[in-house]
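Q: I'm writing up a methods section and want to include an example of the input and output format. Could you take the sequence below and give the corresponding predicted structure tokens, formatted cleanly so I can copy it straight into the document?
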Amino acid sequence: MDVYIKGIGNISPQNTIDSNIFLDEIVNHDTDFLSCIAPNYKEFINPIQLRRMSKLIKMGISASKLCLTDAGIENPGAIITGTGLGLVGDTEKFLNQMLDNNEEFLAPTAFIQSTHNTISGQVAIALKCFNYNNTYSHRGFSFESALLDGMLLIKDKDAENVLVGGFDEITPEHYSIVKKTRWVKKETIKSLDLLDHKTPGTIVGEGVGFFSLTGKKDESNYAKIKDIKTIYKPDNKEEIETKINQFLTENDLTKNDIDLVVLGINGNVDTDDIYYHLADNFFNTNYAYFKHLSGDYHTVGTFALWFAANTIKHQKVPEVTRFRKENFTEKPIKNVLVYNHFREVDHSILLLTQ
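A: Here is the clean output for your methods example:
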């Protein structure tokens, strides 16, 4: 059975809340890390409940409701999420309370909300959904694992529709830690100039994305998710090429059938080599990139899937996302392949079709 994207709710550092608008207004961040543009939470959550919720919980519930409204669904058959680090803000709050109070008289709220499955639980409570509920925390494969689980539920006919999401946040405290590594650029840059800075590290971001999956074909669907594949610690570029070829063959396609390749280029000279290699030597088509809009984080695959699905639905690739613009040619977008990796460890391939 085919799996389709029926609705999307995406809260990100860009104006992505309105599903009818596809990157019409671009935000160029010039901060150390990219923070999400928050919606009016009172439209989705009771103001009394809002007071007890951390930022990521508010974004999670809001994004899930945006998604279900977009899909025209009241209650999903399952809720599945993925997260790399969980609710970092609540974890920090609880640990700071331990230090400040010498491990005595601690408020339990921050601890309760620090667990990785908090978003899935809070979304289920908000929707009064008592169906299958699961959370994956597999580092760079977290969202991909959740997506695969959702697709299997649809294909096995265990649920008619599934709500799948991914979320991660960045805080000043967490940023101060990761900045000590080569994963984050030492200099502060404008996000749209990401690829102009040929230095180690990238810019980190955050985001919450939810997708309503269904097995029913409909003209209003965004796209069809044809297949997904993950690769753990490939030995070299040749292995990645082989895996991509096998992936396409299994789906009765060749690399010449791909109309758009979405690459997870993040401006890090230490890890971007494989993307440039594929663009120079493997595919001969149009390319796009997205991490200058979202920043990089464990579940950035949510933003990539949102972007790829919208290129098919709107039949356009926004100018700001075009990679190798001088070779870009206007043509119908039917098959889109997304290739991304997290720190050269967790590699994922996603195939969408019209």
